[in-house]
Amino acid sequence: MRTLPYGTWPSPISPEDLTGGQVMLDEVRTDGEHTYWLESRPREGGRQTLVRHDGTTSTELLPAPWNVRNRVHEYGGGAYAVADGTVVFSHLGDDRVHRLDPGSTDPVAITPEANRRYAGFVLHGEHVFAVREDHTGDGEPANELVRLDLHGDNADGGLVLHTGSDFVSRPAVSPDGTDLAWVVWDHPDMPWDTTRLLRARLTDEGAGEPHVVAGGDEVSVAQPTFGPDGALWFVSDESGWWLVHRDAGDGPHPVHATEADHAQPQWSLGMRDLAVLDADRVLVRWFEEAGQGLGVLEASSGVVVPSAGAGSFHDHLTAAGDEVAFKRGRTDGLPQVVRGPAGGPFRVLASSAPTDPDPASVSQPEPWSWTNSDGDAVHGFLNPPCLHGVTGPEDERPPLLVLAHGGPTSRAETSYLSSTQFWTTRGFAVLTVNYSGSTGYGRAYRNRLRGRWGVLDIDDCVTGARSVAEAGRADATRLAVRGGSAGGYVVLRAMTTSDVFAAGTSLFGVADLAALARDTHKFESRYCDRLVAPWPEGEEVYRDRSPVHHADRLHGELLLLQGTDDRVVPLAQAEDMAAAMRAAGHDVVLAVYDGEGHGFRRPETVVDALERELAFYTRVLRLGT
Q1: Which structural domains are found in the chain, ordered by start?
Q2: Burial code of 551-561, b = ≥16 C-beta within 10 A, e = fewer?
């Protein structure tokens, strides 16, 4: 066993390894015996292609230059649908909807060139149902539900089935094609605050007058899905937890009672948190402290039978007869696309990389909870340093890297991430914080952040770092914090309101809340009303919580990483923060990457950013000295 200073270990994971051999797997779907998914390929600039597995081999259906993505809500999702071998998809290059016929390699556009975006596709017979975001007018784009003709020219951009609400989600169509269900919400709510589930009869002319099935003030409903008998399944947090509900004609009611969230916040239009198996059973996943559970829920009994070999993370649940498919995360290896009986076991169809890491060098996550300054419990998980054959000096404690996720209404999972193991194999401890406001702990935990964004989440991360150091698991003088988007805001606020962290890395982080409220895209344009204060009435609160106005209080050193094409947190946020730091007499390290948006995709960007960050910590935390 070699003894080497923490933070200097010879990691087998290079920055290039996080891009070169790995792909991102997304949006798993089934069509009979075939399984489909999207692969995002860093070596191709993050281009997303569509892959089909026929039970034996995988085939790429949409090679370059096709890019199966959309920008609805800026976060996209629901970029394709498939039925009976026919695929419809949105191509990022022109935002048009295209059809790929069985056996063909030449997609055909079915919507005209216009400033419109489409997502959340559902194929039924000769029709395509979709969410359309219309940017052809002045002011905010209009989000509407439309029907497209599968083999038509759709010169008008689609037949409008629903309009008038600020937002609309991916629809669901009953098996017999007679009914349509969808979710709507309005400013200033987000889809995890207040939504309504609507249902209407479909006609040749469009959709009849809708009626409200569920939802309302302070109730979030999502994921409507019809069963084979026409019953409507969905999730609702009316009880304080996102639970599965069912309406079989006798009114909506929960089919089980438990204190666990069975859905995630609907940031994108491609999420699938449940998959109906038959008239009585549905495949569900739920959030636990140590990860996620997966199992089959029986509506008649309310009992869940856990699935064998499920993993620690499950996403994009989809069913095909007696089988299911989904994206599976594990604590000891990279994500996979798997398929098999609903109760398991599951066979692997694809993996993010051809080989798994050496298990002896994988840091396993430990559940880690602590109490914040309010006396409330906060949750996360700790990955200790781990590299086979290497240990740190007995009289030394490792540096700690605190990870703050984006959102802020999001959640970090315990699944293996090369980006985390990049640090643990170098001798860092990593604390991932699911701070107040995060998903997976019920509505009350989520609502804690209301009016306290930039206060409570910061305290949670600061007290979390201290709890690890006080437990003797990290060096209190070598604490760092990193995050992107809302996580980047945590970094900037923590570095300007506390003296706990010696270093911080903000990736496209929010520096000016007022500018965010004025300049961000429609989906999040009123997000801060609940998180901070109504805008512009609460302008003073926005100013007080904006790091750009408090650069003179900066403790420690900051690294700023930003893309030029970010529409969620524009480049001006990082530039203004850098200018404020210079004016306050601080050194500034700002790296700007051309062509990158809200999240880095190009391999050269990922490599350069990681190399900069590692060198930054090595210098500021005095690693190896």
Answers
A1: 357-620 (3.40.50.1820)
A2: beebebbbbbb
